[in-house]
Amino acid sequence: MTKLLVLNGPNLNLLGTREPGQYGHETLKDVEEKCRQVAAQFDCEVECFQSNTEGHLIDAIHKAGVEFKNGECVGVVFNPGAYTHTSIALHDAIKGVDVPVIEVHISNVHARETFRHHSYISPVAAGTIIGMGTKGYPLAIKYLLED
Fold first, then answer.
1. What is the pTM of this model?
2. Active-site residue among 56, 62, 91, 105?
3. Residues annotated in the binding site for substrate, as ranges?
């Protein structure tokens, strides 16, 4: 069975309660379950990880890179949260490993504050899904798993 990583950055543990007008009412647990259901249709296991700590996210990306090289992981669906706009370290981690990463954002970051318009992740991501709500996660999973 193949595996993929669904990785979520800072404050995404607050989904369902944080700014529901912007992010909706689904919890992170709801999103993770939706991801597992979609991946199961492709006989794929989902590993979910969320951290508010940049270094833990970097470690997860490095681990996924090793697993990709070993044929154990097909890719990463990554919502880096606010680190999108600040983290050169996450950019370098993705660039340094050979694993496809799909960047996902629940809200349309380009319709928000100007500082959210720049992404350090997009240049090293295999693709980006922005503003599709939590539906972006299953779309990213299907992209990674469909031949």
1. 0.93
2. 105
3. 79, 85, 92, 106-107, 116
Between CA 64 and CA 74, with CA 70 as vertex, the angle to 5 degrees is 50
89: which strand partners? Answer: none
23 part of the active site: yes
Residue range 24-71, pLDDT digits in tens:
678 999 999 999 999 999 999 999 999 999 999 999 999 999 999 999
- List, in order of start, the domains of the chain with CATH numbers: 2-145 (3.40.50.9100)
Q: For the chain, what is the mean pLDDT?
A: 93
- Rounded Cα–Cα distance for residues 63 and 51 (Å): 15
105 is catalytic: yes
What does the CA dihedral 119, 121, 124, 128 come to, rounded to 10 degrees? -80
Nearest Cα neighbor of 6 from 66, 54, 64 is 64
Q: Which residues are annotated as a binding site?
A: 79, 85, 92, 106-107, 116
Task: Report which of 138, 105, 133, 140 is spatially closest to residue 21, judged by C-alpha positions.
Answer: 133
Judge contact between 33 and 49, C-beta under 8 A: no
Phi, psi of 42 (to 5 degrees): -110, 15
